[in-house]
Each structure stands twice: as structure tokens, then as C-alpha cells.
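so the lab meeting is tmrw and i was supposed to have these ready like two days ago... anyway. pasting both below. for each one the top line is the aa sequence and the line under it is the C-alpha cells. i havent really looked at them closely yet so no promises
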Amino acid sequence: MKILKEALDILFPQCCLICGKMSDVSINKVPVCKKCLADMVLIPKYQRWQFCLSEPYKGDRYPGLPLYICFVYKGKVTDLIHRVKFGQRAELARMMGYLTGNSLKADGVFVDAVIPIPLSYGRLMERGFNQAEEMGIEISRILNVPVLTGVISRPKETKRQAELTDDSQRARNISGAFSFNPNYSVYGMTILLVDDVATTGNTLHEASSVLLENGADNVLCCAFAGNRTVKNAETY
């Protein structure tokens, strides 16, 4: 079988799923190229923990909510995420989860369970899979904790957050979007809440609020990539 695979690789070389050029490395069984990997900027360890909301507001019930981000959302990281969302490449989402999970493990993050940010029914039908769930499965495997996919749902159809440029619009758009499933219990648990990208942090903050209001002891938000840095250099 190994000889056959090597022969097929010679006759039909695999292409990088990010840029389409010839692959020369495999990450979690996903063919990519070293050039794309080199262009993916890993956030320094001391800056990976930030506060969830990029624009804190008065009256926030959970002002200290933490957010862990692995990569800077630019260059090949942007291309990668676009390939996942608009190219229907679930295997790339699993690769993102693999990279995120190993980063979390190396940084000594311990949680009781992983919960992915859910998609609305319409968005799930459109894409065919939930990229956050694909990530969550890999992260849970690496951290050796369960992934809980039915705890929260997203019954409200919202506009794409990326289409809204104003922070207040994004906050209003996602407000009330998530519901808690009473058939589950997260009482006393530390939850890792996973999404692919964090910008303003409103999506993760809204979903975290639902979990905390229903008994979770702590919620650690986590995103593969983010396009902001800590403005006052004060990390979590």
C-alpha cells in the first residue's frame, strides 16, 4: 500500500489546498506548501490572550471575558479561511483545528469541554458543514476532552459579520442569536468556545453570555485567527 501511494504521488502530485501550487508538506494529512505555511503569521505567545471585545462597553456583564487567538488574519491565513468558507474545504478547517489545538496544548490550556460556535440552519445548508465544528473536533481530540455540538444553537438568521463595518452594527446583528439547549448541563464547567475568526469579538461574547447564564463556571473564547492586536499592550 505504501509503495502504491508513493507511485501515485509521483504520477499525480498533490497540490496545496491553499494556493493550488505543488504541495511539499502535509499538515494533519492535508497537503499544503511550505511557502503558504511560512506566510502564516503566528501571534507571539505573550499576545495570544486578549480580552474578547475589541471595543468594551459600559454595563457589560462579562467584561473580563478572555480570548485566545493563534494567527494574524492576513495574507495566506485569509486565503486559507476563504478556501474553507467559500471553497467548501472542510479538511482545511480540520487542519486549522489541529494547529489551534496543538497551540493550546503547548500553552497549557485546560478545559472541561469544547463547544463550537454554531451556524444558522440556512448558513449550514449553504456551506454543507460548520467550520467551527470541524475545528472543535480536532481541538477536543488533542486536548482529550469532549466536543459538545448541541449545547447552543443559532435560530436567528443574521447578516454575515464580515459584511458589517461598524462595531455597533455587529453587536446589534448578533444580539439574541444563540439559544441554550436545556437537555444539556454545563454547570460548573470551564468551556472552550471555538470559532474560526475573531474581529470585534461580539459573536464569541454573545455565545459565551448564554453559556455563563446557564451555569458554566468559565468560558475561554478561542479563534484560529484575528485581525486586531491588544491596543494597550495589556494581555489577559
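ok protien two:
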Amino acid sequence: MKNSVSQSLSISRLSVLLCLSLIGNDVFADNNSLSVDNNWWVWPLALFVVSFLIGVVGVLGGVGGGVLFVPIVSGFFPFHLDFVRGAGLLIALAGALAASPKLLKTSLADLRLVMPMAFIASISSIFGALIGLAMPANIVQICLGIAILLIVYLMYKSKESEFPRVPASDSLSNSLRIYGIYHDPAINRDVSWRVHRTIPALFLFIGIGFLAGLFGLGAGWANVPVLNLVLGAPLKLSVASSKFLLSIVDTSAVWVYINQGAVLAIIAVPSVIGVMLGSLIGVKLLAIIQSKYIRIIIIVLLFFAGLRALLKGLEI
């Protein structure tokens, strides 16, 4: 029995090593940074630890895991950027799917608010994913670095409003019946809401979906400001609806990556598990840690990750 178990483990180990040797030239951006030997497990383990910390910090800072995962892992790990972007979309999708049912049940996420934006963003995310996979890795890396640095600037400058003032609904939002009431347990009352500037928001979501597919970042970093500051939806409704919106938009983009073979289990599995476990810890810490300090940490992390991604793209 013992011999058969040992033989099975040896076969499994050889299978993994064979897979790594067959795909190593494509998975690792820097072929000199990893040799297929007895320490092949170091990179997945390190990826799990980093993903776990990203999950904790992402919840505390109110940003999706994908926007932290892609620039950090692509900048400091030897994996090919295509596989990192595929895993980043899976991370954003997993978190959104886990949260969406409860958000819809409590009416904090609104279907009428999400669906028009999700339809537009889903289509553009498919085109973004196709273009991103067709572009040279160094060009995407440079564009990613620039995009992350712009996100850092927007996060630093943005001032979200809990209850934006909407003087009157526009004709398109009235036609689509984008208005409603939700119960806010924090203030223990029902909140009536409506939106305006629907057409500019739809155009913005074309760009958001495209960037989500192109870089594999998810789009939570951009969804909330557009829903809150452009459309005028209350902040809590914007955050919850953004999570549900991700579950639709990222599904469209991630299928492109899967179909093109850009989702690899040895990268995606430890990443998704790490972020999900880290998110559970982050939720518990959220009650005792002030989010403004975590926000500063995230801005600093993204700045250095974006700078590293930009420099790495220029080095290739």
C-alpha cells in the first residue's frame, strides 16, 4: 500500500513537472527566473500568500482584488502577463459572484440601474480582451503601468458623496425606470433615489468595460465613481450595484481568456483561494480599522506597482 501511494505521488509530481516543462516558455515571462526542479511549488505558494494579503487589504480599502492583483503580480512575479490578467478577472468575478445574491436580496443592488450599464460594458470588455491578447506583452505592460498610475491619481482626487443631489431625472432614465427605494440599515430608514446624466454614463461604461477586458483589472475602481458622481446614485447603492455589475461584465471578458488558453490552474487556483480567504479576514478587520489609513496604503502600493509595471514593460 505504501509503495503504491509513493508511486502515485511520484507520478503526480512528474506530471506537474512535465506540464511546467512543456508550457514553461509561455507561462513565465522571464525564462531565466525559474528552473523546473524540486522547488517548482515555491511560486504558487508565494502567489497564495500575496493573494491572501491582497484580499485583506482590498476589502479594507474598498477596492476589488483584481486592481491590486494584476499590477503587483505582473510586476514582481515571473509569470506571463496574459495568465496574470486571466487570473485577475477570475478573482474579480469570484468576489462579485459571492456577494451578488445577498446584495440583490437586500435591495442594495438594483437590477434596473445595473443592466443598461452592464450590457454596454460587457460588449466592450469582449473587444478589450481580444485586443489585449493580440497585443505584444511589453506594450500591454506599459499601458497597464500608465493605467494604474492614472487610477492612483483618480483615487487620490476623488471625493465620493453619500447622497448626491439629483435635481431631476433625465428622459432616458425615466424611460428605463432607473429609480427606486432601498432600506439603509445604518440609518434605519428607506432611501428614495433617482439618476441623471444617463447617456454620458453609458459612454463612460464603454471605456470601463474595454479597460476591464484589456488589463484584467475588474472595474470596481471605476464603476463606483461613475454610478455615484456621474449618475447621482447614493454611495451605498453604487458600491453594491458595482459588485453585481462585475459579475456580468467580468464573465464576458473571462470567457475570452479561457477560450484563448490564458487561464492556467497553477496561477488561478492559489490566487482565487488566497483572495477569497483574505477577504473573510478583511471583513472581520473592517469593524476595527479605519479605512482612510488603508486607502493611503493602497494608493502607495498601486503607485509602486504601476511604476514597476511601466518599467518592466520598457525593459522587455
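from a quick look at the 2nd one: Residues 1-26, 31-36 have pLDDT under 50 and may be disordered. The first helix runs from residue 2 to 27. will dig more after coffe
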